[in-house]
Amino acid sequence: MSVISKGAAVNGENAIEVVNLNKYYGERHALCDLNFTVKRGEILGFLGPNGAGKTTAMRILTGYMPPSSGTARVAGYDVIKHSLEVRANIGYLPETVPLYLDMTVADYLAFVARLHHVKNVRNAVERAMDLVNIRDRADNTINKLSKGYRQRVGIAQAIAHEPAVLILDEPTVGLDPRQIIEVRELIRNLGKEHTIILSTHILPEVSQTCSRVLIIREGQIVAEDTPQRLGTGMSQSQHIHLQVAHAAPEIAGELEKIQGVLTVRTIGDDAYDIETTLNHDRRSDVAAMAVQRGWGVLELCHVRLSLEDVFLQLTMQEETDLVSEYLDSTEGRISDD
Amino acid sequence: MTSVITIAGRELKAYLFSPLAWIILGLFAFFTGFIFVQIMVASRVADMAPLFNWIAVLSLILAPALTMRLFSEEYKLGTMEMLLTAPARDWQIVVGKFIAAWVGFAVLLIPTLWQVLILERYGDPDYGILGASYLGALLLGAAFVGIGMFASSLTQNQFIAYMIGMIALLFLWVADAPANAIGQNNPIADFFRYLALPGQFQEFFNGVIASQHVLFFVSIALITIVLTTLVVSSRRWR
Q1: According to the CATH classification, is domain A14-89+163-231 in 3.40.30.120?
Q2: A117 and B CB contact within 8 Å
Q3: Which of A16, A163, B34, B137 could tie A38 with a disulfide, CB 3.0–4.6 Å?
Q4: Are the beta carbons of A116 and A164 closer than 8 angstroms?
Q5: pTM of the model
């Protein structure tokens, strides 16, 4: 029995390196030339519609199945040549939480810890239960647990052997809002010690938990950035929202006279959406004019494109022009980094 | 090796808490006891050979029930993905499950030991024949359990796994039936005659341990382990 080394090969700051990864299912090209890296300690979000290839990518990274071509390294180990080492360094929560329903929580976690050759099984189990806060359910059989608790047991199972990298496939799917918040909080905490990749098709999840996002569509990365920058970097213009106390028909026309303002749209009775060029922040100009004319400013703010808008724009087939535009603009920026 | 033990340990514990496993044990104990009484009352000879023939029949029905959940349940629960991303080789998972099922099968034979005690108390049993019979039953069990496990690796539906396993065993049992139609001195017919299970286990129950029969059951067990491992690994090239 060879000893599986754990975490020894991590040199450099990248926990995961993926180069030209391809996966075919028969004729279907499920992953097309995927390239990305994840730095140690980063929380990376895989965002994409169902069937985009998120699970396929994760299954390759976990050593569940090999890629058709390309290489992937986790904690310095190649997923094909050193599959067992990769698996020893990864904690994986598949989309279907893998639970033996007739086992107790503690027994199940002990089994997983033993599978991972953990030396002090009892300590590992207790530590994992404490981290996800399920110590009080240790002796319950899993089939008696609520969905939220089962999800936590699933996460505990992934962290029992203290892996360097955590891969979570749709960790909040099917939970109620309160449980979702708890699980996100948990993931953020785990992010302090682990490198994490999580996949989701829920947008707020990414902006709330991830430090970086990959948007995947049909097996290809269509965007890669921080959630914040994806929100702004998307469009060719920016938007200012203005709400006034004394609405008047001429206001829209007046606003359009400000330099750099492209269009002004009236929203409801008393609010305006002002689209401006990217190069300057025009908020002070708008404020000055509003004060000068006595419109009575109630609200004046910079409108960020929500990640949802970006996601929809990037993943909608019809908007391919926008996508290529965006890719052109980001490719420059990413290579600058 | 630790991975194999870990897997086997979990499976055995699962049997311990499985109502189905206890039902199988109960049925096995009841029918072997029932048949034992019939045989003893009728023959009044301290001979367990007829009983062991019935044990083979019961195993044909009950061994696939013992193995049907081995992989089907893992597929259904989604736990297979967890096993296959743990640092264990595919064959270690398969061998672990095989060992657990085989031990489970051996446990089924334990209730028949009290019948040996009865024979000892009231008669003079031949322990050489009995030893060969138990060895034969265990070897037969290894082959049956292997075939059942392979069936389980093919589907996530436990009932279908059971049917595949039992029908496969039934085919092996009567494999010599077409042989006579094909004719004598025909290699294909000989092969079918060779596969027929009764011809392979009968001699054990008469007290003869012949190496070719040992080899037959051991080969089937090994072949099914290899085939099951191939099925489990097939995700890699599908």
Answers
A1: no
A2: yes
A3: A16
A4: no
A5: 0.82
